[in-house]
Amino acid sequence: MWAARNELIDRDVALKIMRPEVAEDAVALQRFFNEAKASGRVRSSSIVEILDLGQAEDGSPFLVFELLYGEGLDARLKRDGTVPPEQLVEMMVGVAKALDLAHSQGIIHRDLKPANIFLHRLPTGETIAKILDFGISKVFDTGQNFSLTRTGMVVGSPAYMSPEQAAGREDIDGRADLWSLGVVMFEALTGTLPYEAANYNALMVRILTQDSDPVQTRKTDLPQALCAIVDACLRRERDQRTQSAGVLAQQLEAVLRETRAIRYRSEGRRASDRAQGGFKRRATDGPGGSFLSERRTPLIIAAAVGLTVGLVIAGIALLLAR
What we know:
Blueprint: E1 2-6, E2 11-17, H1 20-23, H2 26-41, E3 50-55, E4 61-66, E5 70-72, H3 73-80, H4 85-104, E6 107-108, E7 117-121, E8 127-131, E9 138-141, E10 144-145, H5 163-166, H6 175-190, H7 200-209, H8 215-218, H9 224-233, H10 245-266, H11 271-275, H12 291-321
Antiparallel strand pairs: 1-2, 2-4, 3-4, 5-7, 6-9, 7-8, 9-10
């Protein structure tokens, strides 16, 4: 991935270029173009935006993406170990909604992991999690079903792979992404993976045959409702798993409301105070709000009062001058 600048429109962008020798592999090339197709089809603020697709003079295909600022979730976890529950839920609400939109259009990511979730810093200072790399997504088109795997080949990152992917099943659906997101949340909350083993084969056997530890057994001070959500994403039988990303998003939003309410109470704040602009909104309280927006009405009133007083004083001065 390269940072570049489009001089025609004066915009910084990111370039993803495939080497010519790799492009000779039909499967690899198909994955590359599927990334463009999937990313372009699903328009969400929580999915990196693809701006263009082309081919260089030497035949190398390339994609042009929006340029992101910040760090990957993998880098955040490597540095900090874990993510505070409220911050994590804020990130995952947007990710779950983006997945729900993708799934509704027949697109499955199949390789969700911390390295494919980027924490993009907006100009406002807020951070939004963006899904990267639909390069091995399974795209279902009417009358067209692309198979992206060679015989016997398992696609995905082992530690985040759902049991159905590990088993090499062909009927993968959106619940595979929910498993992977469950692993991501488990790791971000506890600093550990639900499944670990000495080698690839042993890891696959564990994923296929053993239930993961409940997340709260790894870190006991986590919110119980959030732990229940993570555990539900990690049911080995997918019919017992959370059934859609839309449901997951709703569950996470409910936990976020509850978590914020507890924090507000601990800080001596009431929900009515927040509604009346009685305190400054934190950056982590979500997009669309700022200290200015909450205090705008009192400022306008104060300005109007000041203007009125100023006019009255000016009028008195003129009368005295006469």
